[in-house]
Amino acid sequence: MRTDIAQIVRLEDYRPSDFLIDRVELDVRLHPTATRVTATLALRPNPEGRADAPLVLDGDEVNLKALALDGRSLPGGEFGASPQSLTIAQPPRRPFTLTIETEIDPTSNTKLMGLYRSSGNYCTQCEAEGFRRITYFLDRPDVMAVYTTRIEAEREEAPVLLGNGNLVEAGAIEGKGRHYAVWHDPHPKPSYLFALVGGRLGRVAKSFTTMSGREVELAIYVEPGKEDRADYALDALERSMRWDEQAFGREYDLDVFNIVAVSDFNMGAMENKGLNIFNDKYVLASPETATDADYANIEAIIAHEYFHNWSGNRVTCRDWFQLCLKEGLTVFRDQEFSSDERSRPVHRIAEVKTLRARQFLEDASPLAHPVRPAQYREINNFYTATVYEKGAEIVRMLKTLIGPEDFRRGMDLYYERCDGTAATVEDFLDAFAEVTGRDLSHFARWYAQAGTPRVTVKGTYDEAARTYRLDFTQETPATPGQPTKEPMAIPVVVGLVARDGGALDASGDRVNAQGVFLLDKASDSVTFTGVASRPVPSIFRGFSAPVKVTLDLTNEELLVLLRHDSDAFNRWQAAQTVAMRLLVELSKGASVPDAAIADFTSALRAFMEADALQDPAFAALAITLPSEADIAQEIGADVDPDAIHRARRHMRRHIGQACLETLQDFRRSLAETGAYSPDAASAGRRALRNASLDLLAAADAELGEALAGEQFASAGNMTDRLASLSVLTTLPGDAREKALAQFEERYRHEPLVLDKWFTLQAAIPEDGTLERVKRLMQHPAFSINNPNRVRSLVGSFAMLNQMQFNRADGSGYEFLADIVLRVDALNPQLAARLLTSFSSWRMMEKTRRGKAEQALRRIAGKPNLSRDVGDIAARSLEEQNA
Ligand code: TRP
Ligand code: ZN
Predict the structure, then answer these.
(1) Whether residue 430 has its Cβ less than 6 Å from ligand 1
(2) N or C terminus of the chain: which is more exposed, having fewer CB within 10 Å?
(3) Same fold, 1-111+133-197 and 454-545
(4) Shortest CA distance to 270 belongs to which of 302, 230, 240?
(5) Is 365 helix (H, G, I), strand (E, B) or coil?
(6) What is the overall mean pLDDT for the chain?
(7) pLDDT of 175
(8) CA 327 / ligand 1 centre spacing (Å)
């Protein structure tokens, strides 16, 4: 499949740059189609580089207009230039200045990398390799420079001009209607952190006093008229800054911190130094337009980008193989922040749900790769759940193993040593090895070995000796390029629970005071002494490691955990495990005795009656079944999505019927009173009320339609309105179409709200959905150029609608292939993301597998594919363990 092997970039081939750039002066004259960029680069040979090397600067679709070396215009014979690179074969072997003038066209830039326009405003996106689309440069993260940026534009077109760092000068240009601003960033940074913005924007601001008493002006820029929707983000920013001071001792280091929200953006947001640029979906919120989930995402992403100021910017990555160094660590940090701001156990469950849905899925697919990959063809394809989410789990395991105090000391040492440098995963681990005196080389395997380890646990009770032994074995499946695996260093947090819920004071050998046992061999065991009665083990409390677990517990024993475990995560996990067992059996067409289902539903009812209202957010999670995609993943081979859908519907109906009264009680006692507030406790009450609605509708469609219809008509916020509309969409008929039309009419001028409307319809588990999605692509609010629109409609169809995307006739696959090819010509990054929805094609049953392969081969065979799509298509088709 792979024809361009030469293009593979390998970690082992890393060598320092032959040249360094100390200072960059940019003069950018903004123009819709012909922006002029003059870059003045202070270059010098790198003492660690090769002495006789040519200077090769990266470029991408840039036009060279002029080139001078130390002020002398270079004749054609002394350099070579193409849109992809600029080469000087015989550069000076001493410091010198290169002045490069290029012209670029931001209006036709549909890739949304480099300088582009969004709603008429100018903005940039440079990570990972976008700076080379602005000017020729050594576009690699270990080349760090101090930037001064002068931006010039028509005042009418772009009254606001923003750059990295602090504003040093601004003014009008006589008689031309043009103006300029000069920004200076004193902190050396890699080019991927460069940014500039020019446009018409509204602004909200507040001042922040740092821990050492410095004043910082915080500002968020949004589309004019939407300023009040940025208040929550601004508040989240302030809380993030305070939290990083308190939790990690990290203070902000510039006079201003600016955030700009744009509506065309390839990902969530970007941590450019002092000038974060955000997908407006993760900034704008009002009770009328945003759900509780939106508020939580905004808080997490604002924090994430802010935290990058230390984990990513002050300490950056030596090369892109080290991406997890900033991303995994920063996800860990934003998760900790959200856990502190909200409910820790509830947040942990949410984290694990996404980890399993996205990362475990990836790890079991042909796209599986280590947290630190050893090679790539297109770096944009490695901003993955593995690098981000599993990367965060590694940091969390490290903290579990060494304890919070040593973890903090290690972080401090890491920042102290690596501040201002481009670092590696080794630098990170070395700091912790040093403060603890521990050898972390075995632990480091988590960065190198792909695949989700499977841990099997067996418990044995010896009544006479009053001992309880846990026998562990572990195994990691083969993944592409890694046919055999070594045992991992797995922190297992364990505890024992008495069957009657009473206390069980037992101590295990090799289990520390925090309940942590380190499983670092293929098999091992722990023995607890002084165990008064046969316990139920609670293993991997708080999900202490990103592994799959097989337990030899009965459903009855698991339901003891649901009631009595002191660890909230494992209470939730117990209910999920029982539900999953039943769902898998039902999906496979096995006959499941009614009694087994009844035992589960009555345990759920008992839980609801006894505990649910004490923590509604937790209860909402506990009564929600694993998703269809989760069930498919658990089955793992010869998957029939129709059977899974039926099984899940069957179970939901049973739960709804068995708990009808309790659920109706919840609806009443959790009724919304007073003004909407996005805080976690209020959101939790709405979550339980809406989860109840969903189960009631499954139990009794008529009742569901009545309740949902009433809620839809009277809802005072988007969370409740959308939840009721979501229930209505699962019930075919007039009521649904009427509600959808009302919603459309009401939010006609709100693109981010219509995205939710697209998503709901794309997820309808019915035969007509594909036609509906195709029809919606003609809707005036839809645009193939806008990533949010494409993801909401097409992405949701492929990712959320298991049954209809994986249609046995292959029409779902063919549709997605058409869209991927169409989008690839405009925006390869977006196209490649969409294409990853094929990644589990091999686990489908034979007919679907054949159809999916056909669609994938059609894509792979297309000439002129982008590197992004070519790479995903080729890897998806590769033999699993090749
Ligand atoms: N560094 C960004 C983050 O995780 C994500 C990012 C990488 C990105 N590449 C991008 C964002 C391209 C937008 C476009 O915080
Ligand atoms: Zn990040």
Answers:
(1) no
(2) C
(3) yes
(4) 302
(5) coil
(6) 97
(7) 85
(8) 9
Which CATH superfamily includes the segment(s) 568-877?
A: Peptidase M1, alanyl aminopeptidase, C-terminal domain (1.25.50.10)
Find out whether the beta carbon of 270 lies less than 6 Å from any atom of ligand 1: yes
Query: Does any ligand 1 atom lie closer than 6 A to the CB of residue 378?
Result: no
Instruction: Write the single-letter amino acid at 188.
Output: P
The residues spanned by each domain of the chain are: 1-111+133-197, 201-309, 322-448, 454-545, 568-877
Pocket test residue of 270, 335, 389, 827 for ligand 1, highest count of atoms within 8 A of CB: 270
CA-to-CA distance for 496 and 514, rounded, in angstroms?
13
What's the CA-to-centroid distance between 268 and ligand 1, angstroms?
7
Count Cα atoms within 13 angstroms, Cβ side, for 329: 27
127 in contact with ligand 1, CB cutoff 6 A: yes
Q: Is 269 in the pocket of ligand 1 (CB under 6 A)?
A: yes
CATH topology of domain 201-309: Zincin-like (3.30.2010)
What distance in Å separates the CA atoms of residue 576 and residue 357, rounded to the nearest whole number? 14
Q: Are 811 and 768 within 8 A, CB to CB?
A: no
CB of residue 820 inside a 6 A radius of ligand 1? no
Q: Is the peptide bond prior to 513 cis by the omega test (within 30 degrees of 0)? A: no
Assigned CATH class of 454-545: mainly beta
How sure is the predictor about 678, in pLDDT bands with cuts at 50, 70 and 90?
A: very high
- Residue closest to 707 by CA, chosen among 738, 737, 664: 664
Active site residue 48: no
d(C-alpha 147, C-alpha 220), whole Å: 22
Closest CA to 621 of 845, 879, 420, 346: 346
Asked whether residue 93 carries a pLDDT value surpassing 70, the answer given is yes
Average pLDDT over residues 786-802: 98
Give me ligand 2 centre to Cα 794, in Å.
25
For ligand 1, atom 3, name the residue with the nearest CA.
270
- Please state which CATH class domain 322-448 belongs to: mainly alpha
Q: Cα dist. 826→82, 109, 501, 814 in Å?
A: 22, 9, 59, 19
Strand-strand pairing, 467-475 and 454-462: antiparallel
> Could you tell which of 111, 112, 118, 127 is best to mutate to test the pocket of ligand 1, judged by most ligand atoms within 8 Å of the CB?
127
> Which long-range contacts link 353-357 to residues 24+ away (Cβ below 8 Å)?
353/621, 354/385, 354/389, 355/385, 355/389, 355/390, 355/393, 355/546, 356/630, 356/633, 357/627, 357/629, 357/630
CA nearest neighbour of 855 among 827, 816, 799: 816
25 in contact with ligand 1, CB cutoff 6 A: no
Q: What angle do CA 64, 94, 85 make, to 5 degrees?
A: 25
Ligand nearest 383 Cα, by number?
Answer: 1
pLDDT digit string (tens) for 717-773?
999 999 999 999 999 999 999 999 999 999 999 999 999 999 999 999 999 999 999
- C-alpha of residue 323 to centroid of ligand 2, in Å: 9
Token readout for 802 is 């298991």
Answer yes or no: is pLDDT of 2 > 60: no
Q: Which of 127, 129, 152, 305 is flagged as catalytic?
A: 305
* 301 CA from centroid of ligand 2 (Å): 8
Query: Is residue 1 very low, low, confident or very high in pLDDT (cuts 50, 70, 90)?
Result: very low
Residue 708 sits at the vertex; the CA angle it makes with 704 and 709, to the nearest 5 degrees, is 115
Q: What would the pLDDT profile of 804-833 be if each residue is shown by its tens digit?
A: 999 999 999 999 999 999 999 999 999 999
pLDDT in tens, 416-451: 999 999 999 999 999 999 999 999 999 999 999 999
Task: Report the residue among 262, 266, 332 best suited for mutation to probe ligand 1: largest number of ligand atoms under 8 A from its CB.
Answer: 266
CATH superfamily of 1-111+133-197: tricorn interacting facor f3 domain (2.60.40.1730)
Comparing CA positions, the residue from 864, 815, 863 lying closest to residue 837 is 815
Q: Hey, what amino acid is at 12?
A: E
